[in-house]
Amino acid sequence: MTDLPVYELERTFDAPRSLVWRTWTEPKLLATWYGPNVETIIHKLDVKPGGLWLNEMKWGENSHYQRAEYVEVDEPEKLVCLMSNTDADWNTIPNPMMADWPLKLLTTVTFTEASGGTDMRLTWVPHEASDAEIQCFAAAMAGADKGWAAGMELLEKLLGELQT
């Protein structure tokens, strides 16, 4: 398969780019909107090439772990990382809810100044994925909007609070 499916999320925020950038790069701010409807615990956030973001999403007695390794950081314009599901020791594992989900997603987030606000664009692309993983990702892309949409609503609210 040569053409990889690409999940795209675009959102415009009524906030300066530097502030939107901070909500993605400061642990306390990131934890308030990432992983809606769960307790988000940022175990590590080292925003630089080769740096790691270690994230736990907790609900009740259950936890879901994620790891992202930054491959490109261009403040305040672009973040690029490889995201994966992990076990509690931060070892990459298959998604516990979808066995054929790609082990890694190339995640790119761009922040562009736009008429007093910020255009944010996020893309996910399967990275070094098998055909089965690519097909699983393509089939599940529409469902990704639900989780991201809830997170974006929280992010919009946070940006409003930070500007008052």
Structure, described:
The protein has helices at residues 17-25, 27-33, 131-162, and strands at 7-13, 39-45, 52-59, 62-74, 78-86, 105-114, 117-126. 29% of the residues lie in helices and 39% in strands. Strand 6 and strand 7 form a beta hairpin. A 7-stranded antiparallel beta sheet has the order 1-7-6-5-4-3-2. It has a single domain, classed as START domain (Alpha-D-Glucose-1,6-Bisphosphate, Chain A, domain 4), CATH 3.30.530.20. Helix 1 (17-25) packs across helix 2 (27-33). The protein is built from 3 helices and 7 strands, in the order βααββββββα. The chain is α+β, with helices and mostly antiparallel strands. The model has no long low-confidence stretch (mean pLDDT 95). It starts with 6 loop residues before the first strand and ends with a helix.
CATH fourth-tier homologous superfamily? START domain
Query: What is the strand tally?
Result: 7
Strand order across the largest sheet: 1-7-6-5-4-3-2
Strand content: 35-45%
State the end-to-end CA separation: 49 Å
Total domain units:
1
CATH first level: Alpha Beta
Helix content: 25-40%
Mean residue pLDDT: 95
String of helices and strands: EHHEEEEEEH
Topology:
Elements: E1 7-13, H1 17-25, H2 27-33, E2 39-45, E3 52-59, E4 62-74, E5 78-86, E6 105-114, E7 117-126, H3 131-162
Antiparallel strand pairs: 1-7, 2-3, 3-4, 4-5, 5-6, 6-7
Helix pairs in contact: 1-2
Compact summary:
With 164 residues, this protein is α+β, with helices and mostly antiparallel strands.
For the structure shown, list the relevant keywords.
164 residues, alpha+beta, Alpha-D-Glucose-1,6-Bisphosphate, Chain A, domain 4, 39% strand, globular
